[in-house]
């Protein structure tokens, strides 16, 4: 007997035809998402209520609202936008990490590195891209080329976020 059949039998024996826990429609959901955004050296948000968080996941760009389906997403280098209750928004560039959406409108984001977007200069990013391209296309070691290609991926994501 597979596990789904066992669950159905157990529910019938208990006198219920449907599971007690069901995901409802968003219109009955609380309108706040509890966000924790942590780096190894700093906590940016600690269980703070926000309206929405937009992330750059490996599976694609995602907007997360209250009552989002629980999931775990690997983050690629990119922009995380936090829309706060007061109506403002904050943008951070993260080098990667993980976002975990838990039941009860709880979102935890853990990243190795992250900085406010306004800390970056478009001109400096362009200069670093040029340098990394020279190394990636040069005659250096395979390790140097691989590191330059990783750097290029991150810098190009940052350049796109700055536009």
Automatic annotation (TrEMBL):
InterPro entries: ATP_synth_F1_dsu/esu, ATP_synth_F1_dsu/esu_N, ATPD_C_fung, ATPsynth_dsu/esu_N. Keywords: ATP synthesis, CF(1), Hydrogen ion transport, Ion transport, Membrane, Mitochondrion, Mitochondrion inner membrane, Transit peptide, Transport. Residues 120-160 form the F1F0-ATP synthase subunit delta C-terminal domain. It holds the Pfam family ATP-synt_DE_N. GO terms for molecular function: proton-transporting ATP synthase activity, rotational mechanism. Residues 33-106 form the ATP synthase F1 complex delta/epsilon subunit N-terminal domain. Transmembrane segments: none annotated. It is found in: Mitochondrion inner membrane. GO terms for cellular component: mitochondrial inner membrane; proton-transporting ATP synthase complex. Belongs to the ATPase epsilon chain family. PANTHER family: ATP SYNTHASE DELTA/EPSILON CHAIN (PTHR13822), ATP SYNTHASE SUBUNIT DELTA, MITOCHONDRIAL (PTHR13822:SF7). This is ATP synthase subunit delta, mitochondrial. It comes from Friedmanniomyces endolithicus.
């Amino acid at each position: 007997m597979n596990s789904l059949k066992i669950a159905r039998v157990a529910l019938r024996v208990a006198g219920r035809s449907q599971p007690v826990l069901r995901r409802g429609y968003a219109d009955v959901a609380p309108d706040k998402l509890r966000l924790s955004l942590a780096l190894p050296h700093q906590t940016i948000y600690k269980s703070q209520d926000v309206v929405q968080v937009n992330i750059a996941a490996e599976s694609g760009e995602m907007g997360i609202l209250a009552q989002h389906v629980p999931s775990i997403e690997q983050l690629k280098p990119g922009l995380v936008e936090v829309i706060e209750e007061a109506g403002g928004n904050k943008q951070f560039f993260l080098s990667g990490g993980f976002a975990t959406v838990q039941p009860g409108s709880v979102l935890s984001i853990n990243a190795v590195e992250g900085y406010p977007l306004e800390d970056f200069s478009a001109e400096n990013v362009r200069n670093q891209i040029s340098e990394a391209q020279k190394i990636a296309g040069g005659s250096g070691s395979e390790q140097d080329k691989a590191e330059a290609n990783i750097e290029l991926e991150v810098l190009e994501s940052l350049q796109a976020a700055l536009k």
